[in-house]
Amino acid sequence: MLEIKNLHARIAEDGTEIIRGLNLTVKDGEVAAIMGPNGSGKSTLSYILAGREDYEVTEGDILYNGESILDLDPAERAAKGIFLAFQYPMEIPGVATMEFLKVAINAQRKARGEEELKIPELLRRVKEASSLLSMDMAMLKRPLNVGFSGGEKKRAEILQMTLLEPSLCVLDETDSGLDIDALKIVSEGVNALRSPDRSIVVITHYQRLLDYIVPDSVHVLYKGRVIKSGDKSLARQLEDNGYAEIIGEAAETVETA
Amino acid sequence: MNIHTSQPRTPAETALIDAFSERVGNLPGNADVAIARDTALEALKIQGLPSRRVESWHYTDFRTLLRVVAPFDPAAGSQPIMSLLPGSTIATVSNGVAISAGQADGVTFQKLSEKLVDGTFAPALATRGTDDLIGQINATYVTGGWYIDIAEGAEIEAPIELQNLQKSGQAHVRFPVRAGKGAKATIIERQFGGEGEAFSSSISHLTVADGAEVIWIILREQGDAAVQLGQFNTTIGKDAKLTLFIVNTGGKLVRQEVHVLAKGEGSDFQLRGINLLGGESHTDVTMTVGHLVENTSSTQIVRNVVTGRARGVFQGMIRVAKIAQKTDARMACNTLLLSDDGEFDAKPELEIFADDVACGHGATVTEISQDHLFYLMARGIPEKTARGLLVKAFVAEIIEELENEPLVEALEGILEDWLSAHA
């Protein structure tokens, strides 16, 4: 599904290198958790996967289903099935949520050569997905994310993800700002999307989310590289001991190498 | 004071002034009207076209900008067009001549030329002041229009659409409208042009009597070679309400003036303006609002989208008289710049003589947010579509305030057409 090879990337504006030789492979159907302290490059990685222009890839490659996506713009990547659930979803006044969903779904369908969804079918799908996430349809009449609480915004992200049916979901700190009830609802929404042909990359600072979305693999990101990979027990270990221990080990490895 | 007499006349000034001797035989009116025309022409001769040195024309230097005055063209007439909203009562002026008007209970339509011939309209031809170029030109040359009276207490369901059609050539028209006490009406003033070179002026006079409520839409769709001067003069009575919504698209050189007098206590004036400016257009909206009595309110919101090499101007002046305590007046001008060569100048002014008022103004200039654009594209919306959505969002907000679904849809349709052609 996803292969990141020796990726180096910097902020386009000032040239600060954020990703420094990152390697990561996520198989079809795998749920991979990416953890790391603040400033390790987690959110940058999510933006680079989605194709944000503020970052420049200087070395390495990102392969999605075997093909490099570096030359694709964000809309093209989305149409190919890459979805980023934002840590801070944008409030866009004047764009009605329902209209946005219709335009986005149909733009992707068009790019894939599929027929556009008719309004009744669209409404049916939206209704079904929003009830699963305990979302009030009345919210969708409002402008996109405007006046939504932090929890409502995160739910709206998962609603979009459900409706757009991506193959690769990247969740950027989806747990931040959620109380425990909202966390459960959002996690159930994500778990409902787990399938053998859909991979999910969960980026998080805390282990808490991983109690609900149980990962197949856990990767620790530090200074723009994956310094340790393991199974879900690695997340537990981080929760108990913090990042310092693993960072220390990694530093030794680098020195001896 | 005149500052132009020492300067040689520009070709445009000469064309404007010299045409009178040829046109005068075709201009309707009795002796009083003839005197009013002569007075206006004399003012035009003395003042000339205003340059940037005239404060109210500072950002629209007409002396420099007006190079060609399209001549009168007897063949420029055209047939009524489809109304913006279905079921409207249409009154059409084409090439300066009132050609047809529909019928509606509680509304009377009279050709303006009749009121020029009988002289009853002569007092209304007086100009606003030495800088009133629009009044000077229009009073000199006005040929037609519709005089409309809405009966006291009449609630007019169907919109009244005033069509001013000018596909090319030159014409000068007026639309005086009186909304009687407690009357309710929606009026759509369509300034509709063609692709030919055109020079036209249109002045509307609206009296909103006590307790009346009027929604007035000025929809300007002009070709790239059209020069148009518009002026909207209104007085608002006690507990009366006026919402004026201006949409400007197209036009090479456009100036729309709005002059409002809040004369009755409890009156409310709302201005919403949308300027969609592309190509080489220069479009100026200049407004003065006078709060003359206690307890009146007004809000002005102008949203501008500027692309290409277009240039826009908004001048807004709120005057609050000394006795006009408890005035509540707010003004905002927001611009979305889509090109590096576009320009927008905003000049908000407050002149407040009362001491217990709430008045404020603000102006912003922004570009499309890269964060918003990325968010939409990350959902698979191609860049051009995403930009269109964001521009639409910027102006649609104030269209939706109208809370009249057919009207909102019609204006959004115009917005979408403009966007697909320009953004």
UniProtKB/TrEMBL annotation, chain A:
SUPFAM superfamilies hit by this protein: P-loop containing nucleoside triphosphate hydrolases (SSF52540)
Protein name: Fe-S cluster assembly ATPase SufC
PANTHER family assigned to the protein according to its UniProt record, in alphabetical order: ABC TRANSPORTER I FAMILY MEMBER 6, CHLOROPLASTIC
Any one Gene Ontology molecular-function term assigned to this protein's record: ATP hydrolysis activity
Keywords (A to Z) from UniProt: ATP-binding, Nucleotide-binding
Coiled-coil parts of chain: none
Family recorded in the similarity comment: Belongs to the ABC transporter superfamily. Ycf16 family.
Recorded name of the encoding gene: sufC
Domain ABC transporter span(s) in chain numbering: 2-248
From TrEMBL, chain B:
Domain SUF system FeS cluster assembly SufBD core: 169-394
Domain of life the protein comes from: Bacteria
Listed InterPro entries: Fe-S_cluster_assembly_SufBD, SUF_FeS_clus_asmbl_SufBD_core, SUF_FeS_clus_asmbl_SufBD_sf, SUF_FeS_clus_asmbl_SufD
GO biological process, one term: iron-sulfur cluster assembly
Protein name: Fe-S cluster assembly protein SufD
This protein's encoding gene: sufD
